[in-house]
Every structure is written in structure tokens, then in C-alpha cells.
Amino acid sequence: MELRELTKKEFDGYALNHPLGSFQQTSSWGRFMEGDKFHAYYVGGVVKEKIVGASLLLSYERKKGERIFYAPRGFLIDYKNEELLKEFTEEVKKFIVEKHGVFLKIDPYILVRDRDSDGNIIDGGVNNDFVEVNLCHANFIKVNDRIQPKWLSRINLKDKTIDNVFKNFSPKARQTVRRNERLGFKVRDFDFKDIDKFMDIINEESKKYNTVVPTRTFYEDLKRTFDGNIQFKEVYFKKDEVISNIDKMILDVNKEKEVRINNYHNSKMTEEYFIDKELEDEEEIKRLESLKEYFSKCSDDVSMGIYMFMTIGNEVVALNGGIVDEYNKLDASYTLHYEMIKYAIDNGYKYYNLYEIGDITDSNNKLKNSYNYKKNFGGEVVELVGEYDLVINPKYTDMARKYFPEYLGVKTIFK
User: In the prediction, which pLDDT does 123 show?
Assistant: First the structure.
């Protein structure tokens, strides 16, 4: 095997089509991180002019010249092939030494085992326990996870229609999506010029959950470097349209009442059934009238929430965002995710990634509410293999491990 530095085009050509690909193993992420004191290298193991393994390597130079390396969500390689992994690792190690590197951290984008939406291991499903064994044979050391989310919620879209996916939604999610559609909730592109609106939502979420907020510059740089592969979407409604839709819904209920009254007078139903249905419809009309009163006090065009999505490689990733507190009770986020799942299917993506859910085996999981919400979409729980260190110069190991801060990844950081 020959290890070569790849051009950005060569690397992306391999990375974007790799089954373990991630937005953090792209030249866009490399450019993004280069704005934060890192240098990006793109390397590939080549056999007979064919790339058989590759990785983005981020390098950070310390004051005395020693460099620490990190392969975010790398390597992109067949982890089943132990000899290939060992050879590629050895070549990468030589490359790092040439660049005065002393340490390498990786956190591959590969799951441990297949799990259902409740986190239960699926009998007969994928089992990647061999990954840890093969990485250890390549001289990697398993360490505690600090940088990237280890647990995700993800919907497999391969060979599925939106109807297939929708059937796996929870009853609550299906009912909410249908109700929001009847009301007239819609999704549109968010004008990034109004980024302050997005930041206001993010800041409110931070106060609510006591988390660290990425800066405005973070999002501006991310938008610039991933241009074309990042989308900001907002879920909204127009007041007049919603009120008109509610009037139609009230009219439909009254029409049903008229038919029922006629059937009752013609002895086509029991008195008990008739009374029960009448009471149900009266409650429904009261509910709709209350909704109408609520929406009548709203602005003409209301943005209820904004989310940021990465749309690159194999998946659409719902990376960050939120709903304005005032509209949380309307459950508009279900509409936003539903529309983006449709987008992902229509554009040939293999996964819709709802992203981090925290360690579901931990009774103190601070993201438990997020996990319970995301379960409603009927996806799978993904437990990734975690972080591994390759010690190149033992003298610098402690320093290197202390250096790696949580903000190097993309995850929720609690204060």
C-alpha cells in the first residue's frame, strides 16, 4: 500500500460515497476547521491505483512544535479487513511522524450493533464487535468518549417510500403531522440574512437546558464552507390560511352532525351512539373555536421554529435548531422533520439522522427528553464504537489527551 496525500476532489469523490461517510469526513469540514487553528490533510491508501482507505486528518501544532492529530469520524475503511486496517494505520502513523505528530485520535462512524427505536439489540442484526478487536490489533487504545455523540437516532431510508416511513411513526407523531397539515403548517427555506432569529432560538434553548451555545460566527462559517450542502429551514403558518382551514374543519363537523341527525331520525343508529357522537362533536367544535381564537391573535406570517440540516453524502442530518417557546405546544417540529424526511427520500439519501440522544443506558441521561421525542419517528438507536487513541510518542500522551476539548466535535455540551 502507498499512502498519498489526496486532492480535495479526490478525497470527496471517495468519502462522499463511502458507507461510513460523514459530514465531518469531507473537505468542507476540513476547510471549516482550518479556520480554528487546524491544518487539514487528506490522505488515502492506494493499491493498484485504487483508494482502499482514506481519512481527513486535522493537525494542531503545540507551542514547541509537536502536533496532535485527529480524524473526526475517521477512518473511512473496511474495518472487517484486519490486515488492511493495520497496514493503513501504520502508513498513517508514518505520515504523522513525518509531520512531527505525536498522537492520533479517531472516532469511526460505525455502529456496534443493530438496535430498534427502544434501544433493544435486534436478534440476527449487524454485530460489529470485531471493530474494537481489530483496532486494538492495529495498536489503538479504547478511551472514554468526550468529543462526538456516541448515541444517535437515525431512520434507515433505503428502498423505502414516505408511506413506509410514516407507518413507523408513533400514533402521536402521525396524528400531529396530519393535524398540522390540515391547519396549514408549512416548511420553507430560512433566509440566512435573518440569522439573529435563529440565534435567538438557540440561545433560548441554551437557557432552558443550561448548554453551551455555538457562536454566530460558528454558524456563519459553517454555512459558507458547506454552501450547497447545508440547509436552514423554518416551519411557519399564515394566519388567514389557518383560520380559513379551521372554518372548513368546523363546517365539516357540522355536516357530519347533520347527516347523523338525519340517520338518527330515520332509526339508523341507537340513541346512546347518537348522544355520544353529539357530545364528541360539541367538544371538537369548542376545541376548534378555541384554536381559531388563538390564531386570530397571531401575526400574519409566523415563523414557529428553525432547524439546520446537513445534506451531504449518505444522509440528511438534523443538526441543530429549535422551536420558539410560544409555539412549543403546537408541536410544529413534527411537520418540519416529516417534510425533511420526504426531501431525503426524494433525493436518494440513505438515512435521516435525528442526531444525538445521549447514552440511553444511563439513568441520568441529560438528553432523555430528546431521545423520547425522537423515538416518535420510528428510527433506530445507533450506538457508535466510540473513541480510540494511537499513541505515537508516549512522552506526549497525557498532554494530548488533556488537550482534546469537547468543542472539537458537534454535540450538546452542558455547562
Answer: 92
